Amino acid sequence: MAALTRTLHKTARLPRTARAAALHALLLVEAGDTAQAALARTLATPSDTALSAQDRHLCSELVYGSLRHELRLGFLLRKLLPRPAGLPPEILVILRFSLHSLLFLHTPHHAVVHSAVELARALAGQAMARLVNAVLRSVQRLGDAVLQEDFYLLQGQKGLARLAAYYSLPACVCTLWENAYGESAALALMRRSLSRPWTGVRLNSSASAAAWQGHDLTDLRQEFIRLAGPEDSVPVGRSGLAVAPGRMPQVILGRDVASWQQTGLLSMQSAASQLVLEALGCLDWTGPVWDACAGYGGKSHCLLESGRNVALATDVSRERLAQLPRQCHRLAVPSPLLALSDASRPCIRHWHGHILADVPCSGLGVLARRPDLRKRLDRKNIAANLASQRAILDGLADLLKPGRELAYITCTLNPAENEDRVQAFLARHKGFSLVRQWQTPHEHPWLEGMYGAVLRKD
């Protein structure tokens, strides 16, 4: 870790380019940051040294793209080098995002190689620069072979697990999906996990007529769809839409998207995250709502915009929870009472309303948006959340009053964390019934994987 810290100091002093910024961000991910946090830290620079919009976009693509394909790129490096894991972390990162550029971007190959060699020389000397040059030239000589599925087949694996390297997934995830959903659905999930995610947009249904300045929610959504194109945009639920990668309009009805966002009329929230609340009936709840695993508050904000009374929001993270009232102010909706609390050990003894529990999970449904999760996944890590999910359900169930509902939500596609967890709960708690459950269809290109169930205390 000390060596990585020293390298981060060195990369921070490099001339500001998209690739130097991507290198710094990816090293932050190596140090434990999420991709989103790493990019935010890297790109939050004074205006006189800030990257152009085009370079910021390239930096983001290099970070997310190389993380999304990291396991596949690692397989390729192991074919070209005897011990790639022994290389300095900065050289491994340079190789991975440069390979991603060669294989998946339209950047001229000579520019990719030149930039990679210069970064390697600046950070690790001439010997490493020569190694980087040799590896990238070898990949160029392989031609289209490195784009083919057969190149990445894993020997000794069975079924779809043989394709794990090609789809940049741990073999155990491929096997889990194939056993749970069948070969066709599992392949659809594997493809979707490797694709760039669609952007989810939520329009503020609680905004006043004055705030819309002559327009309304319907106008804004229709204009989004017109500009993005009907093939590349989809209405989502009551007040949202999903936009295909690269098709997000910059100006809507004479105002740029950032302006609509700043004035509280527009927020970014994944399509599945919006739909799960509607599919479970949470947008029609009456009475107070407690968001017991609030995070940054996306679902609370969605409920508040729909007129629901989110009276309490709790989470284990002070940093995440601190964002919630700021966003409520932007959206002009009431801010709930906040408390630092672990939902498995609730901070209150009585609750008279409904409860929303978007619980910690393995995240198998959001691998396209959270590619940094991929290399951390194994059977042990996937199962790590089962105990906390059970504890959260049991702890909240004791506080629920008869006639009230508990919504259990995950962003994973794993029966052990979803349907099996709910059935086990019902077996332990005879006074509850399953009202409804919902899961995103496997074939949807614009929906991330989510599951939800509503449990009512009889």
What is the compact description of this entry?
The protein has 458 residues and is an alpha/beta fold. 46% of the residues lie in helices and 13% in strands.
Structure report:
The protein is α/β, with parallel strands linked by helices and 458 residues long. The protein folds into four domains: 2-147, Orthogonal Bundle (N-utilizing Substance Protein B Homolog, Chain A), CATH 1.10.940; 153-193; 199-268, no CATH class; 272-457, Rossmann fold. It has helices at residues 2-12, 18-30, 35-43, 53-68, 70-80, 89-104, 109-124, 126-142, 171-181, 183-193, 209-212, 217-228, 257-262, 271-279, 298-305, 318-331, 379-383, 386-397, 419-428; strands at residues 199-203, 233-236, 240-243, 251-252, 255-256, 266-268, 288-291, 309-315, 337-340, 354-358, 405-410, 432-439, 451-457. It has a seven-stranded mixed sheet, with helices on both faces. It has a four-stranded antiparallel sheet with strand order 2-3-1-6. It is globular. The model has no long low-confidence stretch (mean pLDDT 94).
Descriptors:
single chain, 458 residues, alpha/beta, N-utilizing Substance Protein B Homolog, Chain A, seven-stranded mixed beta sheet, 19 helices, 46% helix
As for the number of domains, it is: 4
Helical segment tally? 19
Shape: globular
Q: Which fold name is given in CATH as the topology of the largest domain?
A: Rossmann fold
Q: What is the strand tally?
A: 13
Largest sheet, spatial ordering of strands: 9-8-7-10-11-13-12
CATH architecture classification of the largest domain:
3-Layer(aba) Sandwich
Helix content: 40-55%
- Rounded mean pLDDT score: 94
Low-confidence stretches: none
